[in-house]
C-alpha cells in the first residue's frame, strides 16, 4: 500500500512539474512570430510591361530590399495578372505588386493588405487612357462610339484596372460594351499588357487601345513606343497607384520594415520601370473606388 501511495505521489509531482514547464513557455503564436523576418522573402509582380524589360529593375529592387531587411529577397515577375493573385492566395509569395483591381481581388479572396504604392511626379495617382494612331480620324470617345462597328479595340490584361476595368465601364455606360463576348466593336483583343496594347495601335493593327498613363510615359521615354505616333482621346478620373501588398498575417514589425525599405529606394532604374518618382504609404481604403468599380462590373 505504501508503495502504491509513493507511485501516485511521484506521478502527481511529475504532472505538476510538466504543467509548470508548459506555463512558463510562450503559448501565443502571434507573440512568437511578432517581428519575425523570414530567412527568405518571395515577392510576386504583375507584368505591367514585357517581363524581360522589367527583370533588371526587379533584380535591383530585390537586392535593395535584401540589404535593408537583412534577409534574401527574390522578386518574380509573373506571366499574367491572375497568376500573382493565385500565388498570394496559395501562400507562394510573402508580398506582391498588384494592379488596383488584382489587389482588390486578392484582398477579397486571400486577405492581402496594401502597405505601399508609387508616386508619379510626386502624386500617388495615374489614369486610364484610350489612345489612337496619330493618323486616325478618331479624335474623341464620341468618335469611337459613332464608328464602333468598324473598329478594333486592344485592351491590356483582362484583370488590368486601367487597361480593362475602367475603360470597359466607360464603354458600358456608352452602351457599346455588355461583356467580353457581346460588344458593338468589330473585334476586341486582350493583349496581356500595356506595351502590347500600345504597340498594336502604333502598328495600326487596331484603331483604339487602352493603356496606363504612367506606363505609357515610361514606354515613350524608353523608346518602346514612338510617342509621336499617338493621340490620347480619352482620360479617366484619377486612380490610386498600384499597391504593394503583404500576405494575411504579416507582423506589424515586418510591415514597418518593408515600408522603411521601400521609402529609401532612390535608384533611378528601379523607379523608371514603374514611371515613378518614389514610393509612398498606402492602405486598403485607398482602393475603395476600384472595389466599387469591380462590383459594378460584376467582378466581385
From TrEMBL:
The keyword Signal applies. GO terms for cellular component: ATP-binding cassette (ABC) transporter complex. The keyword Nuclease does not apply. GO terms for biological process: transmembrane transport. Keywords: Signal. It comes from the Bacteria. CDD domains: PBP2_PnhD_2. Gene3D superfamilies: Periplasmic binding protein-like II (3.40.190.10). PROSITE patterns: PROKAR_LIPOPROTEIN. PANTHER family: PHOSPHONATES-BINDING PERIPLASMIC PROTEIN. Belongs to the phosphate/phosphite/phosphonate binding protein family. This is Phosphate/phosphite/phosphonate ABC transporters, periplasmic binding protein PtxB.
Amino acid at each position: 500500500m505504501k508503495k502504491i501511495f509513493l507511485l501516485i505521489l511521484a506521478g502527481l509531482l511529475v504532472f505538476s512539474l510538466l504543467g509548470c514547464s508548459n506555463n512558463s513557455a510562450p503559448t501565443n503564436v502571434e507573440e512568437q512570430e511578432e517581428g519575425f523576418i523570414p530567412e527568405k522573402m518571395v515577392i510576386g509582380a504583375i507584368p505591367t510591361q514585357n517581363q524581360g524589360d522589367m527583370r533588371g529593375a526587379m533584380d535591383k529592387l530585390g537586392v535593395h530590399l535584401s540589404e535593408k531587411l537583412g534577409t534574401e529577397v527574390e522578386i518574380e515577375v509573373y506571366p499574367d495578372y491572375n497568376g500573382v493573385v493565385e500565388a498570394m492566395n496559395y501562400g507562394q509569395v510573402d508580398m506582391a505588386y498588384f494592379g488596383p483591381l488584382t489587389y482588390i481581388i486578392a484582398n477579397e479572396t486571400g486577405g492581402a493588405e496594401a502597405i505601399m504604392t508609387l508616386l508619379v511626379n510626386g502624386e500617388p495617382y495615374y489614369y486610364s487612357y484610350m489612345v489612337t494612331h496619330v493618323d486616325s480620324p478618331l479624335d474623341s470617345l464620341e468618335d469611337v462610339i459613332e464608328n464602333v462597328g468598324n473598329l478594333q479595340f486592344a485592351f491590356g490584361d483582362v484583370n488590368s484596372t486601367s487597361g480593362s476595368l475602367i475603360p470597359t465601364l466607360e464603354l458600358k455606360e456608352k452602351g457599346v460594351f455588355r461583356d467580353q463576348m457581346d460588344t458593338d466593336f468589330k473585334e476586341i483583343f486582350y493583349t496581356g499588357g500595356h506595351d502590347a496594347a500600345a504597340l498594336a495601335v502604333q502598328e495600326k493593327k487596331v484603331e483604339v487601345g487602352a493603356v496606363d498613363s504612367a506606363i505609357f510615359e515610361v514606354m515613350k521615354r524608353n523608346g518602346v513606343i514612338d510617342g509621336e505616333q499617338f493621340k490620347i482621346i480619352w482620360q479617366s478620373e484619377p486612380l490610386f497607384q498600384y499597391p504593394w501588398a503583404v500576405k494575411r498575417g504579416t507582423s506589424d514589425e515586418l510591415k514597418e520594415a518593408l515600408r522603411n525599405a521601400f521609402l529609401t529606394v532612390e535608384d533611378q532604374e528601379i523607379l523608371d520601370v514603374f514611371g515613378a518618382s518614389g514610393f509612398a504609404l498606402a492602405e486598403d481604403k485607398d482602393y475603395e473606388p476600384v472595389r466599387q468599380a469591380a462590383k459594378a462590373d460584376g467582378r466581385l
